[in-house]
Design goal:
heterodimer; A: about 280 residues; mainly alpha; three-stranded antiparallel β-sheet; two-stranded antiparallel ribbon; about 55% helix; B: about 325 residues; 2 strands
Amino acid sequence: MVKLLNDTYTTFRTIFTGMGITWRHLFTKSVTVQYPAQRDVLPERVRLKLDVNMDDCIGCRLCERACPVDCITIGTTKSTDDDDLGETSTGHKKKLWVDQFDIDMAKCCYCELCVHPCPTDCITMVEDYEYSSYDRNDLILSFSDMTPEQIEEVQAKLEREEEEKRKKKEEARAAKEKAKAEGGKDDAGGGAASSGDTDADAEKAARRAEREAKRAARKAEREGKDAGESSGAAGESGGSAAKSDDTDADKEARRAEREAKRAARKAEREAKKKSEE
Amino acid sequence: MSSGPLVVFVFSIIPLKIILVYALFAIWLERKVAGHMQDRLGPMETGGWHGWAQTIADLLKMIQKEDIVPAKADRFLFKMAPFIAFAASYGAFVAIPLSSGYIGSMIDVGVFYIVAITSLLSVSIIMAGWASNNKWSLLGAMRTAAQTVSYEVPTVVTILSVIIVTGTLNLMEVTELQSGNGFLGFLPNWIIFHSPFMILAFFLFFIAALAESHRVPFDLPESESELVGGYQTEYSGMRWGLFMLTEYADMLLLSLVGATLFFGGWNSPFGSFMDGPLWGAFWMLLKGMVLVFVMMWLRWTLPRLRVDQLMNLCWKYLIPLSFVNLVLIAFWEMIFK
Protein backbone atom coordinates (compact mmCIF):
# COMPACT_ATOMS: atom_id res chain seq x y z
CA MET A 1 0.00 0.00 0.00
CA VAL A 2 2.78 2.42 0.99
CA LYS A 3 4.79 1.22 -2.00
CA LEU A 4 1.83 1.77 -4.27
CA LEU A 5 1.33 5.35 -3.11
CA ASN A 6 5.05 5.99 -3.20
CA ASP A 7 5.33 4.67 -6.75
CA THR A 8 2.32 6.69 -7.82
CA TYR A 9 3.83 9.81 -6.36
CA THR A 10 7.19 9.13 -8.03
CA THR A 11 5.47 8.48 -11.35
CA PHE A 12 3.56 11.73 -11.32
CA ARG A 13 6.54 13.70 -10.07
CA THR A 14 8.83 12.35 -12.77
CA ILE A 15 6.24 12.76 -15.50
CA PHE A 16 5.74 16.38 -14.53
CA THR A 17 9.51 16.92 -14.42
CA GLY A 18 9.75 15.48 -17.91
CA MET A 19 6.87 17.55 -19.15
CA GLY A 20 8.51 20.62 -17.69
CA ILE A 21 11.65 19.90 -19.66
CA THR A 22 9.78 19.40 -22.93
CA TRP A 23 7.74 22.53 -22.23
CA ARG A 24 10.91 24.54 -21.86
CA HIS A 25 12.26 23.12 -25.10
CA LEU A 26 9.03 24.02 -26.86
CA PHE A 27 10.06 27.64 -26.51
CA THR A 28 13.82 27.44 -26.86
CA LYS A 29 15.21 28.63 -30.14
CA SER A 30 15.52 25.82 -32.61
CA VAL A 31 18.92 24.86 -33.93
CA THR A 32 17.71 24.31 -37.46
CA VAL A 33 19.46 26.17 -40.24
CA GLN A 34 16.93 26.79 -42.99
CA TYR A 35 19.49 25.74 -45.50
CA PRO A 36 18.93 27.31 -48.88
CA ALA A 37 17.86 30.58 -47.26
CA GLN A 38 20.29 30.53 -44.35
CA ARG A 39 23.77 29.13 -44.37
CA ASP A 40 26.19 28.12 -41.70
CA VAL A 41 29.35 30.15 -41.48
CA LEU A 42 32.04 27.88 -42.82
CA PRO A 43 35.27 27.48 -40.87
CA GLU A 44 38.50 28.82 -42.28
CA ARG A 45 40.44 26.45 -44.52
CA VAL A 46 37.45 24.30 -45.39
CA ARG A 47 38.14 21.68 -48.02
CA LEU A 48 35.12 21.50 -50.27
CA LYS A 49 36.12 21.79 -53.89
CA LEU A 50 39.32 22.14 -55.89
CA ASP A 51 39.88 25.09 -58.10
CA VAL A 52 42.75 25.81 -60.45
CA ASN A 53 43.85 29.19 -61.66
CA MET A 54 45.04 28.19 -65.11
CA ASP A 55 46.85 31.48 -65.64
CA ASP A 56 49.34 30.39 -63.02
CA CYS A 57 49.65 26.73 -63.87
CA ILE A 58 53.02 25.76 -65.28
CA GLY A 59 52.07 22.15 -65.92
CA CYS A 60 54.64 20.74 -63.52
CA ARG A 61 52.36 17.82 -62.52
CA LEU A 62 53.37 18.00 -58.86
CA CYS A 63 49.73 17.94 -57.83
CA GLU A 64 49.03 14.98 -60.06
CA ARG A 65 51.85 13.10 -58.44
CA ALA A 66 50.83 14.09 -54.91
CA CYS A 67 47.26 12.89 -55.33
CA PRO A 68 46.76 9.65 -53.38
CA VAL A 69 43.67 8.66 -55.38
CA ASP A 70 44.88 9.78 -58.82
CA CYS A 71 41.98 12.06 -59.44
CA ILE A 72 44.02 14.70 -61.27
CA THR A 73 44.96 14.17 -64.92
CA ILE A 74 47.25 16.66 -66.57
CA GLY A 75 48.33 16.72 -70.19
CA THR A 76 51.03 19.05 -71.42
CA THR A 77 52.66 19.93 -74.68
CA LYS A 78 55.99 21.68 -74.92
CA SER A 79 55.82 25.14 -76.30
CA THR A 80 57.87 25.93 -79.36
CA ASP A 81 60.68 28.46 -79.27
CA ASP A 82 58.68 31.13 -81.04
CA ASP A 83 55.85 31.00 -78.51
CA ASP A 84 56.05 32.97 -75.32
CA LEU A 85 53.55 31.76 -72.75
CA GLY A 86 54.45 34.50 -70.35
CA GLU A 87 55.05 34.27 -66.66
CA THR A 88 52.89 33.30 -63.73
CA SER A 89 51.98 35.83 -61.09
CA THR A 90 54.69 34.29 -58.92
CA GLY A 91 57.31 34.92 -61.60
CA HIS A 92 57.68 31.39 -62.90
CA LYS A 93 58.30 31.03 -66.59
CA LYS A 94 55.62 29.02 -68.34
CA LYS A 95 57.11 26.56 -70.76
CA LEU A 96 54.31 24.07 -71.32
CA TRP A 97 50.91 24.23 -72.89
CA VAL A 98 48.58 22.64 -70.33
CA ASP A 99 46.11 21.14 -72.74
CA GLN A 100 44.34 19.02 -70.15
CA PHE A 101 43.75 19.61 -66.46
CA ASP A 102 40.96 17.36 -65.25
CA ILE A 103 40.06 16.83 -61.61
CA ASP A 104 37.57 14.10 -60.87
CA MET A 105 35.76 15.38 -57.77
CA ALA A 106 33.97 12.05 -57.50
CA LYS A 107 37.29 10.43 -56.70
CA CYS A 108 38.74 13.28 -54.68
CA CYS A 109 39.21 12.51 -51.00
CA TYR A 110 39.65 16.16 -49.99
CA CYS A 111 43.05 15.55 -48.41
CA GLU A 112 44.44 18.80 -49.84
CA LEU A 113 47.78 17.08 -50.51
CA CYS A 114 47.79 18.48 -54.02
CA VAL A 115 47.52 22.05 -52.84
CA HIS A 116 50.76 22.26 -50.91
CA PRO A 117 53.29 21.09 -53.52
CA CYS A 118 52.13 23.61 -56.09
CA PRO A 119 55.03 25.99 -56.75
CA THR A 120 52.75 28.76 -58.01
CA ASP A 121 49.85 28.23 -55.56
CA CYS A 122 47.46 27.90 -58.46
CA ILE A 123 45.51 24.88 -57.17
CA THR A 124 43.38 25.72 -54.16
CA MET A 125 40.40 24.51 -52.13
CA VAL A 126 37.40 26.81 -52.47
CA GLU A 127 34.21 27.22 -50.45
CA ASP A 128 31.79 25.78 -52.96
CA TYR A 129 29.94 22.69 -51.85
CA GLU A 130 26.86 22.74 -54.04
CA TYR A 131 28.02 20.82 -57.06
CA SER A 132 26.15 17.56 -56.68
CA SER A 133 25.00 16.18 -59.96
CA TYR A 134 22.94 13.45 -61.55
CA ASP A 135 25.80 12.38 -63.79
CA ARG A 136 29.11 11.19 -62.46
CA ASN A 137 30.88 12.73 -65.46
CA ASP A 138 29.69 16.17 -64.44
CA LEU A 139 31.97 15.89 -61.43
CA ILE A 140 35.05 15.83 -63.64
CA LEU A 141 36.17 19.42 -63.61
CA SER A 142 38.12 20.47 -66.71
CA PHE A 143 40.16 23.57 -66.12
CA SER A 144 42.13 23.78 -69.34
CA ASP A 145 40.48 26.25 -71.65
CA MET A 146 42.26 25.07 -74.77
CA THR A 147 40.05 23.90 -77.57
CA PRO A 148 40.86 20.67 -79.43
CA GLU A 149 41.84 22.73 -82.45
CA GLN A 150 44.25 24.76 -80.42
CA ILE A 151 45.76 21.65 -78.92
CA GLU A 152 46.19 20.10 -82.30
CA GLU A 153 47.76 23.23 -83.63
CA VAL A 154 50.19 23.43 -80.76
CA GLN A 155 51.10 19.79 -81.07
CA ALA A 156 51.54 20.03 -84.81
CA LYS A 157 53.73 23.04 -84.29
CA LEU A 158 55.83 21.17 -81.77
CA GLU A 159 56.17 18.24 -84.10
CA ARG A 160 57.23 20.53 -86.87
CA GLU A 161 59.77 22.16 -84.68
CA GLU A 162 61.10 18.86 -83.45
CA GLU A 163 61.32 17.66 -87.00
CA GLU A 164 63.22 20.77 -87.95
CA LYS A 165 65.54 20.43 -85.01
CA ARG A 166 66.19 16.82 -85.83
CA LYS A 167 66.88 17.78 -89.40
CA LYS A 168 69.21 20.54 -88.30
CA LYS A 169 70.97 18.14 -86.00
CA GLU A 170 71.34 15.63 -88.75
CA GLU A 171 72.57 18.29 -91.06
CA ALA A 172 75.01 19.42 -88.47
CA ARG A 173 76.16 15.89 -87.91
CA ALA A 174 76.47 15.33 -91.61
CA ALA A 175 78.38 18.55 -91.96
CA LYS A 176 80.58 17.57 -89.09
CA GLU A 177 81.27 14.18 -90.52
CA LYS A 178 82.01 15.79 -93.81
CA ALA A 179 84.28 18.25 -92.14
CA LYS A 180 85.91 15.45 -90.25
CA ALA A 181 86.41 13.49 -93.41
CA GLU A 182 87.79 16.54 -95.12
CA GLY A 183 89.96 17.31 -92.18
CA GLY A 184 91.32 13.78 -92.34
CA LYS A 185 92.09 14.17 -96.05
CA ASP A 186 94.22 17.26 -95.89
CA ASP A 187 95.57 17.01 -92.43
CA ALA A 188 97.80 20.02 -91.99
CA GLY A 189 96.93 22.06 -95.03
CA GLY A 190 93.58 23.38 -93.82
CA GLY A 191 94.67 26.94 -93.93
CA ALA A 192 96.70 26.55 -97.13
CA ALA A 193 93.87 24.94 -99.03
CA SER A 194 91.69 27.98 -98.64
CA SER A 195 94.37 30.50 -99.39
CA GLY A 196 92.80 31.27 -102.75
CA ASP A 197 89.76 32.89 -101.04
CA THR A 198 89.52 36.27 -99.46
CA ASP A 199 91.35 36.79 -96.21
CA ALA A 200 88.29 37.01 -94.06
CA ASP A 201 86.79 33.87 -95.52
CA ALA A 202 89.95 32.01 -95.12
CA GLU A 203 90.25 33.08 -91.58
CA LYS A 204 86.69 32.00 -90.84
CA ALA A 205 87.09 28.68 -92.49
CA ALA A 206 90.22 28.07 -90.63
CA ARG A 207 88.58 28.89 -87.37
CA ARG A 208 85.69 26.62 -88.14
CA ALA A 209 87.89 23.80 -89.08
CA GLU A 210 89.88 24.29 -85.95
CA ARG A 211 86.73 24.31 -83.84
CA GLU A 212 85.40 21.23 -85.44
CA ALA A 213 88.57 19.41 -85.05
CA LYS A 214 88.65 20.39 -81.42
CA ARG A 215 85.10 19.23 -80.93
CA ALA A 216 85.77 15.97 -82.64
CA ALA A 217 88.74 15.45 -80.44
CA ARG A 218 86.71 16.24 -77.34
CA LYS A 219 84.04 13.87 -78.42
CA ALA A 220 86.48 11.12 -79.04
CA GLU A 221 87.98 11.75 -75.67
CA ARG A 222 84.63 11.69 -73.99
CA GLU A 223 83.61 8.51 -75.66
CA GLY A 224 86.77 6.87 -74.63
CA LYS A 225 86.28 8.06 -71.08
CA ASP A 226 82.66 6.92 -71.04
CA ALA A 227 83.57 3.50 -72.20
CA GLY A 228 86.22 3.24 -69.59
CA GLU A 229 83.99 4.47 -66.89
CA SER A 230 81.07 2.25 -67.75
CA SER A 231 83.25 -0.76 -67.79
CA GLY A 232 84.71 0.30 -64.51
CA ALA A 233 81.27 0.86 -63.00
CA ALA A 234 80.11 -2.51 -64.14
CA GLY A 235 83.04 -3.99 -62.39
CA GLU A 236 82.72 -1.82 -59.33
CA SER A 237 79.29 -2.55 -57.87
CA GLY A 238 76.30 -4.35 -59.25
CA GLY A 239 74.07 -2.48 -56.85
CA SER A 240 74.58 1.00 -58.14
CA ALA A 241 74.34 -0.26 -61.69
CA ALA A 242 71.07 -1.93 -60.91
CA LYS A 243 69.86 1.25 -59.31
CA SER A 244 70.72 3.38 -62.24
CA ASP A 245 69.09 0.78 -64.41
CA ASP A 246 66.04 1.06 -62.25
CA THR A 247 65.74 4.78 -62.54
CA ASP A 248 66.38 4.45 -66.21
CA ALA A 249 63.65 1.90 -66.52
CA ASP A 250 61.40 4.15 -64.47
CA LYS A 251 62.05 7.07 -66.69
CA GLU A 252 61.50 4.94 -69.70
CA ALA A 253 58.24 3.65 -68.31
CA ARG A 254 57.04 7.12 -67.42
CA ARG A 255 57.87 8.43 -70.80
CA ALA A 256 56.05 5.54 -72.40
CA GLU A 257 53.08 6.17 -70.18
CA ARG A 258 53.02 9.82 -71.03
CA GLU A 259 53.21 9.08 -74.69
CA ALA A 260 50.44 6.55 -74.42
CA LYS A 261 48.35 9.08 -72.58
CA ARG A 262 48.97 11.70 -75.15
CA ALA A 263 48.07 9.28 -77.91
CA ALA A 264 44.90 8.32 -76.07
CA ARG A 265 43.99 11.95 -75.64
CA LYS A 266 44.58 12.63 -79.24
CA ALA A 267 42.44 9.68 -80.24
CA GLU A 268 39.72 10.85 -77.91
CA ARG A 269 39.80 14.32 -79.29
CA GLU A 270 39.63 13.03 -82.81
CA ALA A 271 36.73 10.81 -81.92
CA LYS A 272 34.97 13.77 -80.37
CA LYS A 273 35.64 15.87 -83.41
CA LYS A 274 34.28 13.14 -85.60
CA SER A 275 31.18 12.74 -83.50
CA GLU A 276 30.66 16.47 -83.52
CA GLU A 277 30.88 16.46 -87.24
CA MET B 1 -34.77 20.89 -36.42
CA SER B 2 -37.68 19.70 -38.48
CA SER B 3 -36.57 20.11 -42.05
CA GLY B 4 -35.78 18.22 -45.22
CA PRO B 5 -33.54 15.16 -45.42
CA LEU B 6 -30.71 17.21 -46.96
CA VAL B 7 -30.52 19.54 -43.97
CA VAL B 8 -30.65 16.55 -41.65
CA PHE B 9 -27.82 14.96 -43.59
CA VAL B 10 -25.70 18.10 -43.51
CA PHE B 11 -26.29 18.46 -39.79
CA SER B 12 -25.61 14.83 -39.09
CA ILE B 13 -22.19 14.92 -40.67
CA ILE B 14 -21.02 17.99 -38.74
CA PRO B 15 -18.72 15.81 -36.56
CA LEU B 16 -17.23 14.28 -39.70
CA LYS B 17 -16.36 17.68 -41.07
CA ILE B 18 -14.88 18.66 -37.76
CA ILE B 19 -12.86 15.46 -37.60
CA LEU B 20 -11.49 15.85 -41.11
CA VAL B 21 -10.45 19.45 -40.65
CA TYR B 22 -9.16 18.73 -37.18
CA ALA B 23 -7.11 15.75 -38.40
CA LEU B 24 -5.39 17.90 -41.02
CA PHE B 25 -4.66 20.50 -38.37
CA ALA B 26 -3.68 18.05 -35.63
CA ILE B 27 -1.18 16.16 -37.75
CA TRP B 28 0.47 19.45 -38.68
CA LEU B 29 0.36 20.54 -35.03
CA GLU B 30 1.84 17.25 -33.92
CA ARG B 31 4.75 17.75 -36.28
CA LYS B 32 5.29 21.30 -35.12
CA VAL B 33 5.08 20.31 -31.45
CA ALA B 34 7.43 17.40 -32.06
CA GLY B 35 9.84 19.63 -33.90
CA HIS B 36 9.90 22.44 -31.41
CA MET B 37 10.14 20.13 -28.41
CA GLN B 38 13.26 18.69 -30.03
CA ASP B 39 14.60 22.15 -30.87
CA ARG B 40 13.79 21.69 -34.52
CA LEU B 41 11.30 23.60 -36.64
CA GLY B 42 9.12 20.90 -38.17
CA PRO B 43 7.58 21.47 -41.59
CA MET B 44 8.45 24.94 -42.87
CA GLU B 45 8.14 24.99 -46.64
CA THR B 46 4.82 23.66 -47.88
CA GLY B 47 2.18 26.34 -48.28
CA GLY B 48 4.35 29.20 -47.15
CA TRP B 49 3.61 30.12 -43.56
CA HIS B 50 5.31 27.51 -41.34
CA GLY B 51 4.37 24.68 -43.67
CA TRP B 52 0.66 24.88 -42.94
CA ALA B 53 -0.26 22.91 -46.06
CA GLN B 54 2.02 19.99 -45.29
CA THR B 55 -0.77 17.64 -44.27
CA ILE B 56 -2.84 18.57 -47.30
CA ALA B 57 0.12 17.74 -49.51
CA ASP B 58 0.54 14.44 -47.68
CA LEU B 59 -3.13 13.68 -48.12
CA LEU B 60 -2.96 14.36 -51.85
CA LYS B 61 0.06 12.11 -52.11
CA MET B 62 -1.67 9.37 -50.13
CA ILE B 63 -4.73 9.42 -52.35
CA GLN B 64 -2.57 8.82 -55.40
CA LYS B 65 -0.77 5.85 -53.87
CA GLU B 66 -1.31 2.31 -55.01
CA ASP B 67 -3.61 0.27 -52.81
CA ILE B 68 -1.53 -2.82 -52.12
CA VAL B 69 -3.07 -5.97 -50.69
CA PRO B 70 -0.60 -8.72 -49.77
CA ALA B 71 -0.97 -11.88 -51.89
CA LYS B 72 -1.67 -14.17 -48.96
CA ALA B 73 -3.79 -11.74 -46.99
CA ASP B 74 -7.44 -12.29 -46.23
CA ARG B 75 -8.62 -9.79 -48.80
CA PHE B 76 -12.07 -9.09 -47.43
CA LEU B 77 -11.02 -8.55 -43.81
CA PHE B 78 -7.93 -6.67 -44.90
CA LYS B 79 -9.94 -4.21 -46.93
CA MET B 80 -12.69 -3.83 -44.37
CA ALA B 81 -10.56 -3.23 -41.28
CA PRO B 82 -9.74 0.49 -41.79
CA PHE B 83 -13.38 1.33 -42.44
CA ILE B 84 -14.55 -0.45 -39.32
CA ALA B 85 -11.83 1.30 -37.35
CA PHE B 86 -12.95 4.72 -38.51
CA ALA B 87 -16.63 3.84 -38.18
CA ALA B 88 -16.02 2.84 -34.57
CA SER B 89 -14.44 6.13 -33.56
CA TYR B 90 -16.78 8.20 -35.70
CA GLY B 91 -19.81 6.38 -34.31
CA ALA B 92 -18.87 7.47 -30.83
CA PHE B 93 -19.14 11.15 -31.73
CA VAL B 94 -22.89 10.83 -31.95
CA ALA B 95 -23.29 10.94 -28.18
CA ILE B 96 -21.01 13.93 -27.60
CA PRO B 97 -22.65 17.33 -27.17
CA LEU B 98 -20.58 19.63 -29.35
CA SER B 99 -22.48 22.64 -28.09
CA SER B 100 -25.66 23.38 -26.20
CA GLY B 101 -27.43 23.33 -29.56
CA TYR B 102 -25.87 20.31 -31.16
CA ILE B 103 -25.69 16.66 -30.19
CA GLY B 104 -25.91 13.80 -32.67
CA SER B 105 -28.37 11.85 -30.62
CA MET B 106 -29.81 12.46 -27.16
CA ILE B 107 -29.33 8.88 -26.04
CA ASP B 108 -29.74 8.40 -22.32
CA VAL B 109 -26.92 5.88 -22.11
CA GLY B 110 -24.46 8.19 -23.91
CA VAL B 111 -21.31 7.36 -21.95
CA PHE B 112 -22.10 3.68 -21.95
CA TYR B 113 -22.63 3.82 -25.70
CA ILE B 114 -19.27 5.54 -26.22
CA VAL B 115 -17.43 2.96 -24.12
CA ALA B 116 -19.16 0.16 -25.98
CA ILE B 117 -18.61 1.43 -29.49
CA THR B 118 -14.97 2.39 -29.03
CA SER B 119 -14.17 -1.22 -28.19
CA LEU B 120 -15.06 -1.96 -31.81
CA LEU B 121 -11.79 -0.25 -32.58
CA SER B 122 -9.79 -3.08 -31.07
CA VAL B 123 -11.84 -5.54 -33.13
CA SER B 124 -10.88 -3.73 -36.29
CA ILE B 125 -7.24 -3.66 -35.27
CA ILE B 126 -7.27 -7.38 -34.61
CA MET B 127 -8.94 -7.81 -38.01
CA ALA B 128 -6.23 -5.78 -39.68
CA GLY B 129 -3.44 -7.63 -37.89
CA TRP B 130 -4.86 -11.06 -38.56
CA ALA B 131 -5.80 -10.43 -42.17
CA SER B 132 -2.39 -9.00 -43.05
CA ASN B 133 -0.82 -12.44 -42.61
CA ASN B 134 2.29 -10.84 -41.19
CA LYS B 135 3.84 -11.64 -37.85
CA TRP B 136 4.50 -8.03 -36.93
CA SER B 137 0.93 -7.12 -37.66
CA LEU B 138 -0.33 -10.03 -35.63
CA LEU B 139 1.94 -9.22 -32.70
CA GLY B 140 0.69 -5.66 -32.74
CA ALA B 141 -2.90 -6.80 -32.94
CA MET B 142 -2.48 -9.17 -30.02
CA ARG B 143 -0.95 -6.43 -27.94
CA THR B 144 -3.93 -4.26 -28.80
CA ALA B 145 -6.33 -6.88 -27.59
CA ALA B 146 -4.51 -7.26 -24.30
CA GLN B 147 -4.12 -3.53 -23.87
CA THR B 148 -7.70 -2.59 -24.67
CA VAL B 149 -9.21 -5.28 -22.49
CA SER B 150 -7.01 -4.21 -19.58
CA TYR B 151 -7.44 -0.48 -19.89
CA GLU B 152 -11.18 -0.63 -20.42
CA VAL B 153 -11.48 -1.36 -16.71
CA PRO B 154 -9.86 1.81 -15.28
CA THR B 155 -11.51 3.95 -17.96
CA VAL B 156 -14.94 2.67 -17.10
CA VAL B 157 -14.34 2.92 -13.36
CA THR B 158 -13.18 6.54 -13.57
CA ILE B 159 -16.13 7.39 -15.80
CA LEU B 160 -18.33 5.69 -13.23
CA SER B 161 -16.98 7.93 -10.49
CA VAL B 162 -18.14 10.93 -12.52
CA ILE B 163 -21.50 9.31 -13.10
CA ILE B 164 -21.90 8.92 -9.32
CA VAL B 165 -21.74 12.71 -9.07
CA THR B 166 -23.95 13.52 -12.04
CA GLY B 167 -26.44 10.74 -11.70
CA THR B 168 -26.98 10.52 -15.47
CA LEU B 169 -25.31 8.83 -18.43
CA ASN B 170 -26.53 11.39 -20.93
CA LEU B 171 -23.58 13.62 -21.74
CA MET B 172 -25.78 16.60 -22.56
CA GLU B 173 -27.25 16.47 -19.08
CA VAL B 174 -23.79 15.92 -17.60
CA THR B 175 -22.70 19.15 -19.28
CA GLU B 176 -25.75 21.10 -18.25
CA LEU B 177 -25.10 20.14 -14.65
CA GLN B 178 -21.72 21.85 -14.82
CA SER B 179 -22.92 25.27 -15.96
CA GLY B 180 -22.62 28.32 -13.76
CA ASN B 181 -19.86 29.73 -11.63
CA GLY B 182 -20.63 28.47 -8.17
CA PHE B 183 -17.63 26.80 -6.71
CA LEU B 184 -15.57 28.98 -4.33
CA GLY B 185 -17.26 31.98 -5.88
CA PHE B 186 -15.06 32.16 -8.98
CA LEU B 187 -14.19 28.67 -10.19
CA PRO B 188 -16.58 27.25 -12.75
CA ASN B 189 -18.90 24.49 -11.65
CA TRP B 190 -16.85 21.82 -13.36
CA ILE B 191 -16.66 18.33 -12.02
CA ILE B 192 -12.88 18.43 -11.75
CA PHE B 193 -13.26 21.05 -9.00
CA HIS B 194 -15.95 19.05 -7.30
CA SER B 195 -13.65 17.24 -4.92
CA PRO B 196 -9.91 16.54 -4.60
CA PHE B 197 -10.53 12.96 -5.58
CA MET B 198 -11.89 14.15 -8.90
CA ILE B 199 -8.47 15.48 -9.84
CA LEU B 200 -7.00 12.03 -9.28
CA ALA B 201 -9.94 10.57 -11.17
CA PHE B 202 -9.14 12.83 -14.10
CA PHE B 203 -5.49 11.78 -14.14
CA LEU B 204 -6.47 8.13 -14.04
CA PHE B 205 -9.00 8.69 -16.80
CA PHE B 206 -6.47 10.53 -18.93
CA ILE B 207 -3.85 7.81 -18.57
CA ALA B 208 -6.36 5.10 -19.38
CA ALA B 209 -7.66 7.12 -22.32
CA LEU B 210 -4.13 7.49 -23.67
CA ALA B 211 -3.77 3.73 -23.52
CA GLU B 212 -7.17 3.27 -25.16
CA SER B 213 -6.25 5.49 -28.06
CA HIS B 214 -2.86 3.79 -28.43
CA ARG B 215 -0.88 6.96 -28.06
CA VAL B 216 2.69 7.16 -26.83
CA PRO B 217 3.67 5.99 -24.21
CA PHE B 218 1.15 3.23 -24.83
CA ASP B 219 1.60 2.82 -28.58
CA LEU B 220 2.59 -0.83 -28.38
CA PRO B 221 0.23 -1.92 -31.18
CA GLU B 222 2.07 0.32 -33.62
CA SER B 223 5.52 0.67 -32.04
CA GLU B 224 7.28 1.46 -35.30
CA SER B 225 10.68 0.90 -33.75
CA GLU B 226 10.12 -2.73 -32.79
CA LEU B 227 7.12 -3.97 -34.77
CA VAL B 228 7.75 -2.04 -37.98
CA GLY B 229 4.27 -0.57 -37.78
CA GLY B 230 2.29 -3.18 -35.92
CA TYR B 231 -1.11 -3.75 -37.48
CA GLN B 232 -0.42 -0.99 -40.04
CA THR B 233 2.63 -2.69 -41.52
CA GLU B 234 0.96 -4.05 -44.66
CA TYR B 235 -1.30 -1.09 -45.27
CA SER B 236 -0.58 1.58 -47.82
CA GLY B 237 -2.17 4.60 -49.39
CA MET B 238 -5.54 5.77 -48.23
CA ARG B 239 -6.28 2.66 -46.17
CA TRP B 240 -3.29 3.47 -44.05
CA GLY B 241 -4.50 7.07 -44.10
CA LEU B 242 -7.81 5.93 -42.64
CA PHE B 243 -5.99 4.26 -39.75
CA MET B 244 -4.11 7.49 -39.21
CA LEU B 245 -7.34 9.43 -39.32
CA THR B 246 -8.84 6.99 -36.82
CA GLU B 247 -5.95 7.50 -34.47
CA TYR B 248 -6.41 11.26 -34.51
CA ALA B 249 -10.20 11.00 -34.36
CA ASP B 250 -9.78 8.77 -31.35
CA MET B 251 -7.54 11.30 -29.67
CA LEU B 252 -10.15 13.98 -30.22
CA LEU B 253 -12.96 11.71 -29.10
CA LEU B 254 -11.33 10.82 -25.81
CA SER B 255 -10.28 14.42 -25.25
CA LEU B 256 -13.84 15.58 -25.84
CA VAL B 257 -15.18 12.90 -23.49
CA GLY B 258 -12.64 14.03 -20.92
CA ALA B 259 -13.59 17.66 -21.46
CA THR B 260 -17.28 16.84 -21.12
CA LEU B 261 -16.89 14.71 -18.03
CA PHE B 262 -14.39 16.86 -16.14
CA PHE B 263 -14.13 20.31 -17.68
CA GLY B 264 -17.69 21.34 -18.24
CA GLY B 265 -18.03 20.48 -21.92
CA TRP B 266 -19.38 23.41 -23.89
CA ASN B 267 -19.71 25.60 -20.81
CA SER B 268 -17.79 28.83 -20.84
CA PRO B 269 -15.25 29.11 -18.04
CA PHE B 270 -16.58 32.64 -17.33
CA GLY B 271 -20.15 31.80 -16.34
CA SER B 272 -22.65 33.39 -18.68
CA PHE B 273 -19.96 35.48 -20.38
CA MET B 274 -19.19 34.23 -23.90
CA ASP B 275 -21.91 31.69 -23.63
CA GLY B 276 -24.29 30.42 -26.28
CA PRO B 277 -24.46 27.63 -28.87
CA LEU B 278 -21.63 28.91 -31.08
CA TRP B 279 -19.39 29.92 -28.18
CA GLY B 280 -20.26 26.53 -26.72
CA ALA B 281 -18.84 24.77 -29.78
CA PHE B 282 -15.75 26.98 -29.49
CA TRP B 283 -15.17 26.16 -25.82
CA MET B 284 -15.81 22.48 -26.39
CA LEU B 285 -13.31 22.24 -29.23
CA LEU B 286 -10.81 24.41 -27.39
CA LYS B 287 -10.93 22.18 -24.34
CA GLY B 288 -10.64 19.15 -26.58
CA MET B 289 -7.65 20.65 -28.39
CA VAL B 290 -5.91 21.49 -25.14
CA LEU B 291 -6.18 17.86 -24.08
CA VAL B 292 -5.03 16.74 -27.52
CA PHE B 293 -2.05 19.04 -27.12
CA VAL B 294 -1.29 17.48 -23.75
CA MET B 295 -1.38 14.06 -25.44
CA MET B 296 1.17 15.29 -27.98
CA TRP B 297 3.21 16.86 -25.23
CA LEU B 298 3.31 13.54 -23.41
CA ARG B 299 4.21 11.77 -26.61
CA TRP B 300 7.43 13.73 -26.93
CA THR B 301 8.18 13.43 -23.22
CA LEU B 302 7.78 9.78 -22.33
CA PRO B 303 9.33 6.66 -23.81
CA ARG B 304 7.18 3.69 -24.73
CA LEU B 305 6.31 1.17 -22.03
CA ARG B 306 7.24 -2.50 -22.31
CA VAL B 307 4.38 -5.01 -22.48
CA ASP B 308 4.91 -6.19 -18.92
CA GLN B 309 5.22 -2.61 -17.66
CA LEU B 310 1.99 -1.79 -19.44
CA MET B 311 0.16 -4.62 -17.72
CA ASN B 312 1.86 -3.83 -14.44
CA LEU B 313 0.74 -0.21 -14.61
CA CYS B 314 -2.81 -1.16 -15.43
CA TRP B 315 -3.48 -4.01 -13.05
CA LYS B 316 -1.30 -3.02 -10.12
CA TYR B 317 -1.77 0.74 -10.08
CA LEU B 318 -4.59 2.12 -12.18
CA ILE B 319 -7.25 -0.40 -11.31
CA PRO B 320 -6.72 -0.42 -7.51
CA LEU B 321 -6.37 3.36 -7.44
CA SER B 322 -9.48 3.92 -9.52
CA PHE B 323 -11.54 1.58 -7.36
CA VAL B 324 -10.34 3.21 -4.14
CA ASN B 325 -11.04 6.58 -5.73
CA LEU B 326 -14.53 5.47 -6.73
CA VAL B 327 -15.30 4.47 -3.17
CA LEU B 328 -13.90 7.72 -1.77
CA ILE B 329 -15.92 9.82 -4.23
CA ALA B 330 -19.02 7.86 -3.30
CA PHE B 331 -18.40 8.65 0.40
CA TRP B 332 -17.78 12.34 -0.42
CA GLU B 333 -21.08 12.40 -2.30
CA MET B 334 -22.88 10.85 0.68
CA ILE B 335 -21.35 13.23 3.23
CA PHE B 336 -21.53 16.57 1.39
CA LYS B 337 -24.71 16.25 -0.63
